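Appendix C reproduces, verbatim, an entry submitted by the partner laboratory led by Prof. M.T., so that reviewers can inspect both the input and the predicted structure.
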Amino acid sequence: MSQIAPMWRASANPLDCSHPSERCVQRTVEGYLRSLGVEGKVGQMIQAEIANATPTEVGEYGLGSILNGGGSFPGGDKHASVDDWRALADAYHDAARGSARSHAVPLLWGTDAVHGHSNVYGATVFPHNIGLGAARDGDLMEAIAVATAREVAATGIDWTFAPTLAVVRDDRWGRTYEGYAEHPDVVVDYAPRVVAGLQGAAGEAGFLGEDRVLATAKHFLGEGHTTDGRDQGDVVCSEETLHDLHAGGHRAAVAAGVQTVMAAYNSWHGTKVHGHRYLLTDVLKGALGFDGFVVSDWDGFLQTAEDRAEACGRSVNAGVDMLMVGVEWRAAYHDLLQQVVDGTVPMERVDDAVRRILRVKARAGLFSCPRPSERSATEEGTGVGDASHRKLARQAVRRSLVLLKNNGVLPLRRDAKVLVAGDGADNIGKQCGGWTLTWQGTGNDNADFPNGTSLFDGFVQATAHHGGAVALSPNGEYAGENPDVAIVVFGEDPYAEGDGDRDHLSYSAVDPKPLAILRKLRERGVPTVSVFLTGRPMWVNPELNASDAFVVAWLPGTEGGGVADVLFRGPNGELAHDFHGRLSFSWPRHALHTPLNVGDTDYAPLFPYGYGLRYRDAADDGTGRLDESDTAVGRPARDSTRPTGSTYPR
């Protein structure tokens, strides 16, 4: 494509180049750019992972950035303290400022704070994006972004790889929960609110102040539209669809002043986005007016060519400004340097990339910033796990819950005798999902969340001092007389992309135990409330039939007590919190009912986009008994083999 399609229109840059602060930024950038040699410039274009690059090496090579990938911590300790994070940030800062090769250009540290600062022990973990999309609350989104920025800044880190702006069109995709909705309306509404919450309002006082961090619009572009929902797969759609359906959130983020954009792993009509000059340079930097820098996804540049050096050059020439390198960053540095020296990557392209990187660093105030531990954002007692942030997260849980069915059993009395069953009831790791302490979110237990509250904890708190009683029985067994009600908490185990891809959406075909518990309780005459923990809509007709009420809690994070706030009446017996959430993803009618999206010509979901009952609604949801024939039974498990070089993709 030699010309930009007319549908792409330039976004207004919210940072006025005539403003004194922007003129100061420009002077700083040009001064440092002139001082850097070719080795220093190439160093600025490399981002290395903290497990593979010591502070000394960062200084020796004059690297521009580091990151902590999923499951990477100071000293390799999952329970590293906030002080440990700050000390490591100091060490990298000092090494960069003392680097002769980089002429003391400050370092950027990036992290995946995608639902709170979820890599850090003791941090507040907010609901994943799929739940926040159901909340339909832009003010809440901005408040969450402000709180997240505060927790990230408190550890001495400058940059988060968020928000994810994917419009998800096939729920088999393992990253579905990272998307707000299947339709761009919610994404377009949320994008500028999250960017403003993280960075501050562009062009106004406080923009990228000490309690703010750089945001990343990711992943550009089309990742939610891959064939069969395959992670990192091919997107086959028209440019109009790419523009109308998938680009809206990115346009809104650019207009809000987002400073970094992450390239997507997927291809568009067979060409990897990391090597797609038309999309990255002509559209993003040209037509949309993006003047920050483009960072690759984890080793994403390696997918553009068989040869590593060729891949480096091809991605940079396409418009990637900074290469995020998983392990072999030294090789990437030397390969890119050789590509520059031999002219494969023109010096003009290098200068453009480095100018963009330096511009973002200058806007963030890094050239005049003290050591991380000496910044006001890292003062003792600020940030990580703050009580106000946990209160906000609990509110987010309440706002995100979606009620699919209620045959009069909800809301519950606080003096009720409650049996709590299911393996998700007292499992904070499961309710948090992927991208929580570890990449896949696996290997965590309740002790890993010292400030967290499980759903069971919330049920106990709701009935305490009100004459009620709560008993935990994961398998649903109990002795004696029937409880007044049983709450069964079940759902998907944690996963991240790749490992989370599926061939079908049947829940019971993968885990039949919760259905057996529900049916057993029903046979004994116990009213049942299902609470479903999930990163996507799933075919749960058997579980719906076996439940008197069915609540989708998504992946609510560390503040599980928010579920009890809505399920139980208030202390005075009145309704304290009604259900608020509405589906931002259509609910499938059968296990192979995907792709399924509002606006389809044959649109016939079980529950439509925007569905969500309230307590005032009729007791019966009107679905009657649902078809339980499982079209996915007997289908082979999906191959989740990772593409080469993708250990910790963002």
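The longest helix spans residues 138-154. Additional entries are available on request from the coordinating office.
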